[in-house]
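Proteins fold reproducibly. Take a sample protein:
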Amino acid sequence: MRYLSESFAVGALRRSASIEQFLGPTFHGERRGVRWVAIEPRRNGRYAVMAYLSWDIGGEHFRDLLEFPPLDPQADDAGELLAEVDDPVEALATAERVTNAVRERWTNVGVAAEDYFDYVRSGRLPDPLTKDAATHVVRTLLITGGGIERTVSWWLDGVTRRTDVCTSAT
């Protein structure tokens, strides 16, 4: 079983174990990356919601997300603190609200790499995402009826992020 039920996720956090979730593709300029979110218990009894953006250098034989370099060469690879809260259920809700994480897809640390592997096997977004490539993605989604829900969400989120970057640059 890859994903934690809500009670198991909360239990892990209360035992001071971090949990994480793969969120899909992202971009920094022309660099294709991946993003994931983690909830990390702190020694002060609080829970940190952390966002990670890494350069997508992995593949079928290399998928340890923690080993990927930061997407932004100027960034610290320690991740970005999005929030720090007092309660594990509040941490889940906060992470889901600010990153669009899904309650049913939290994993133990290291297991989100399996979702990354699924993303690689399903086919990364074309890079660069030209108008023709984006059209191909949309056609593929229409022809196949979408396929696996999480793959569709990764692709659509990636197209949105990429087109937002292109639109804001013009």
Notes: The first strand starts at residue 19 and ends at 28. Residues 37 and 103 are 12 Å apart (CA to CA).
